[in-house]
Write a structure and sequence with these properties.
With 204 residues, the protein is of the alpha+beta class. Helices cover 40% and strands 14% of the residues. The chain starts with a strand and ends with a helix.
Length: 204
């Protein structure tokens, strides 16, 4: 399930359907490590799940514990990489949250901040984000407002990489560069990676 940038259902909510990406995920040429800067799990894991997500997206919020459970139970076989893809129109605080997470990441607290943002999706205004930063012991002066704009280029680059890969909604997942179109469950993701491993062995 995912939030879409276009098309609304009859109920007025954004339609939740999987996205078919058109190509493998591009890695920003500005810095070879840029696309993988917010990684969770073993950096040498044979499987990388790259998520283009939005902190205000309820489907991303639902995917978060699933993906972390998958990584935590993988014995170092899977890592998760986050890329920002804020959906500006349906989610007015998505960009604010993305900038705050980016700023927190530069203080060594990307994933703790991400966890608080997902836990409090209905409260992503500046005052709330400052409060989350205080809970994490961060320098809150960089998290919101004009100081946070220094991180806008990083968010913009993630977003453009997503557009270039055919991303239109959140969450959109890629496994080792291939678009994942299944349900976001531990079982389905494990099955997909198991099939990928079998195909790789067959090609040898």
């Amino acid at each position: 399930m995912s939030d879409m940038t276009t098309e609304e259902s009859d109920g007025g909510t954004q339609e939740a359907t999987p996205i078919a990406a058109q190509s493998a995920v591009p890695v920003s040429g500005h810095d070879p490590d840029f696309a993988f800067r917010w990684a969770y799990g073993n950096p040498e894991a044979p499987f990388t799940i790259m998520e283009f997500g939005d902190f205000e997206c309820p489907y991303c919020g639902a995917a978060k514990p699933v993906l972390h459970e998958l990584v935590n139970g993988s014995d170092g076989q899977v890592r998760l990489v986050w890329r920002h893809f804020p959906l500006f129109e349906p989610h007015p605080y998505a960009l604010t949250a993305a900038l705050a997470a980016e700023a927190a990441g530069h203080q060594g607290a990307f994933w703790p901040m991400a966890g608080l943002l997902f836990k409090n999706q209905a409260q992503l205004d500046d005052a709330s984000i400052v409060r989350y930063g205080e809970q994490l012991g961060l320098d809150t002066s960089t998290l919101v407002g004009d100081p946070a704009q220094r991180f806008a280029e990083a968010v913009r680059t993630d977003y453009q990489d997503g557009i270039d890969a055919g991303v239109h909604g959140t969450p959109t997942l890629f496994i080792n560069g291939e678009p994942y179109l299944g349900d976001v469950t531990v079982t389905d993701l494990r099955d997909t990676m198991a099939m990928s491993r079998k195909r790789a062995r067959f090609r040898r």
